[in-house]
Amino acid sequence: MNKIISAIDKLLQLSLIAMISTIILAVLWQVLSRYLLQSPSSGSEEIARFLLIWISLLGAVYSYRMKMHLGLDVLVKKMQPKQELATQLLCHFLVLAFSVSVLFLGGINLVILTFNPVQISAALGIHMGYVYMVLPLSGVLMSLSALNELVTTWQQRMLQKEVH
Questions:
Q1: Which residues are in the Tripartite ATP-independent periplasmic transporters DctQ component domain (predicted)?
Q2: In the chain, how many domains are there?
């Protein structure tokens, strides 16, 4: 499972780099077309908005995987080892529950709603379902990460028990 997670991490990292590079170019073009050409590009603004959605959700998955997300662990660090383990497991379980229920299931419902009846973006003319497809995608990736964290945390605890 670690090889799969590692491959997903690398793909996610490269995808985020590509999307951030693209959003920079889109915003740069928007500024240049507005101020130098006196003709604002509506397509570049929509591209930037849609990319921001994708970067935000996939970036949350990546930051959770790399343990770079915001977290208040002041109280957790003061707990006894058993309480700390229980709290960590609870947190990862809550991330899993949120990922499955809100991101994955809610995302699928939103994608279905935007494909039937079809909702088209104003400037680019693409189906909004493709834009919202990032919700179930990030739900699956976040769920995999949360499951991996649950298993890893539990295994580390079992190894600590064997040593003592």
A1: 23-155
A2: 1
Structural domain including 123 reads 2-163
Contact residues for 137 (Cβ-Cβ < 8 A; gap 6+):
57, 58, 107
Please write the tens of the pLDDT for every residue from 22-80: 999 999 999 999 899 888 888 999 999 999 999 999 999 999 999 887 776 777 778 88
Of 7, 50, 8, whose CA–CA distance to 26 is shortest? 50
Residue identified by tokens 């397509």 is 43
Q: Which of 58, 60, 64 is nearest to 150 (CA)?
A: 64
pTM (two decimals): 0.88
Chain-centre distance for alpha carbon 53: 10
Alpha carbon distance 160, 158 (integer Å):
5
CA distances 105 to 61, 99, 139, 146, Å, are 17, 8, 8, 16
